[in-house]
Amino acid sequence: MSIALNGFITGLSLIIAIGPQNALLLRQGLKRVAVTHVIAVCLISDVFLIVGGTLGVGVIVEKAPIVLVALKWLGFFYLLYFAYTCFRDALKSHSLTVDESAPSAPEKGEALVSTPDTDNGAGGVAVAQRTMAPAKTQPDWVKPVIAALVFTWLNPAAYVDTLVMLGGIANQYGDPGRWHFTAGVLAASTVWFPLIGYGAAKLSKPLSNHRVWQGLNVVIGFVMIGIALRLLMH
């Protein structure tokens, strides 16, 4: 039990700091868009990384530094792009809209429909009628899910902290202690990610004011730039 608690505290200390995953979850929670999807991606990714570290995959990462270098640069540029989107949203003049209603109906379009002329039997007359045509838009969860995947799997710190460091600590306990430690770390992720995502969603109404939302976007943007610069110096 003490080993599992040790894992829980260690895991919580690693993920509680503001990082790209937490910033994304906070942002999506406040927007109330794809929160569950992003939480699921973060949790499933953590399962693979943490279990991989316990199984000793971290040794492979340590022996292939070129992989970490490539991930570092890819992650750096994506973090800068995400910061740009935050600043872009901050410059918009509208406030955050919290929509608790059902999804809006698809856009309407017009179609020419031929109707028969029953008076003289001379054929039909083309009249314009409005018909329901489904709008061909991308699901709102796609971009946040891609961002969550990028922030997790293109982040060298995730490999170093999870595969190498946590894996190293876990394996010091031997069997079955290492799996007790791993269970504790996974429990920390299972508690933290829903807490920040759904917690932000609960606060979305009081924080939906334009100035507040603008300020949050600016803060998150600068946090992302800071993480990107720290990534280069890692």
TrEMBL record:
Chief location category: membrane
Coiled-coil segments: none
Entry keyword set: Cell membrane, Membrane, Transmembrane, Transmembrane helix
InterPro entries, alphabetized: LeuE-type
The keyword Transmembrane is assigned to this record: yes
Pfam families in alphabetical order: LysE
Mode of membrane association: Multi-pass membrane protein
TM helices/strands, residue ranges: 6-26, 38-60, 66-87, 179-200, 212-233
Record's GO cellular component terms: plasma membrane
Location of the protein in the cell: Cell membrane
Any one Gene Ontology molecular-function term assigned to this protein's record: amino acid transmembrane transporter activity
Cytoplasm is among the record's keywords: no
Name by which UniProt lists this protein: L-lysine exporter
Organism: Corynebacterium durum F0235
